Amino acid sequence: MWLELNGNPISPWHDVPLYPNANDPSIVNFVVEIPRWTAGKIEIKRDEPLNPIFHDERDDAPRFRENVWPYKAHPFLYGSIPQTWESPNFKHSFTGYPGDNDPMDLFDIGQDPGFYGQVKQVKILGGLAVVDDEETDWKMMGIDIKDPLATLVNSVEDVEKYRPGTTQAFYDWFAGFDAEKTPIVGETYQNQTFCLRQVVESHGFWRELVDGTADPNEISFSQTAGDSLKSYISCKKATSKFDLPKKNRPGKPAEVPEKFQRWFYYSSEGELLNPDMQD
Asked: What is the DSSP string of 49-88?
């Protein structure tokens, strides 16, 4: 699925601006890849032109997230911050690990369940410096600025004040990522000020990527927004140049296997228990 602007395809990663208002860096645009409580592993495809949103696969089958008690799949909206890049070309100073070669991730704790490809404006409140498979993989906490709680919260501590227990629940969800104990640098949330600096730094890495001065690895960095950059292509020419579909052809979503409609549990040793062994 590609994003569209005035009938032409655009990249959700490279064409959606980072800031909806340059005068307030605490608010960023956010591309929804996974609506709340859905199980599909949906993400931006970094190696295809204009980076469509797709259902990730493993062993030629769509991937899904388990319902690990007490969470229902993804307990928040999950997606990415456009025009950021966790560069894998060096070790990041705070984590000591290279980036995961993707845009920064963000989870939105607001009430709106969202939809695939939705672009929201969210306020960053803090974040978790996750190290996944020896790669830096920031998880920024944000809230939709239209959410009733948004005007009351500016930090992780504020969230805990108005929504007791949620910050620890989200921390525990990420700490048990992919059924393995996932390291979180500092073993706590980093504050808003620090996280906003990380976003600015990541945006700088992205600028180097689309300007052609950084090793792109496998990333397709063509974009239609900045005509002064080497990566620019006219949005009117993108469909023919990249042989993209000219018409919308929605297909049926992949059915969620019965296994992923059941509860999973962690053992006392932190292992994910097979639901078929729990009867």
From this structure: TT--EEE-EETTEE-B--EETT--S-SSEEEE-TT----S
Closest CA to 154 of 195, 120, 119: 195
User: Using an 8 Å Cβ cutoff, are 207 and 229 in contact?
Assistant: no
- 12-35 residue pLDDT tens: 999 999 999 999 999 999 999 999
The residue type of 245 is P
Site of tokens 């990522």: 177
Measured CA to CA, the distance from residue 125 to residue 13 in angstroms comes to 21
SS3 for 163-193 is CCCHHHHHHHHHHCHHHCCCCEHHHCCEEHH
CA 261 to CA 83: how far, in whole Å? 35
Q: How far apart are CA 265 and CA 248, in angstroms?
A: 40
Q: Could you tell me if residue 150 is left (phi over 0), alpha (psi between -120 and 50 degrees) or otherwise beta?
A: alpha
Bridge-based pairing state of the strands 105-108 and 67-68? unpaired
Q: Could you report the per-residue pLDDT of 140-163, keeping only the tens digit for each?
A: 999 999 999 999 999 999 999 999
Type of residue found at 162: Y
Q: Look up residue 206 and give its two tokens.
A: 């992205």
Q: Pick from 203, 216, 211, 221: which is nearest to 50 by CA? A: 221
Q: What distance in Å separates the CA atoms of residue 14 and residue 116, rounded to the nearest whole number?
A: 17
